[in-house]
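The protein record quoted in full:

***
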Amino acid sequence: MEIVCLDLEGVLIPEIWIEFAKQTGVDELRMTTRDIPVYTELMDKRLSLLNKNKFKISDIQQVIASMEPLSGAESFLNWLRQHFQVVILSDTYYEFASPLMKKLQWPTLLCHKLVCDNNGSIVDYKIRQPDAKLEAVKSFQNLNYHVFAAGDSYNDTAMLQKANNGFLFCPPNNVAKEFPQFKVTNNYDELKSAIMENSTRFS
């Protein structure tokens, strides 16, 4: 039994915070887990910037509603679903993800939740569990699944290390250089081939 676990942003959809930074002109919001490995540190910086600039969740949701999945993402995901169980493991939030999940035909998504006040300001965030991606992979393995995993950032590397087969997908040079043990795939065809080469379904 085989299951594929994918990161979301940078793998299937553009980086939400980068898109928001582009549209608001607040360049500091371009920071992602490609830049800051410690996720809680990154989110604390983001919340501080949102508060400083008086941005509300509705401002971010408006940007997300205008976004589209990465080119080829939907057909790649559809191919995966024909052959494997597929789960998206992400450090995004349910309050952000729905418009893009609809465009991807509602794949299973495990992520986190935001806390907003009555004015729509984001005041906190609730992590589903510590090391959520790693723990999900471990749980699938405990259910006797062979786990394939793919991601692009520092916060994916623990999941890739634990997976039976872990792949980097279009990573920045710094991540690829620091984690040479993971095969780098540069497009969906390469990722598809890497999975097929290690799957009993295609042997």
Q: What stands out?
A: Residues 2-12+71-113+128-202 form a domain with the Rossmann fold fold (CATH 3.40.50.1000). The two ends are 14 Å apart (CA to CA). The longest helix spans residues 39-52.
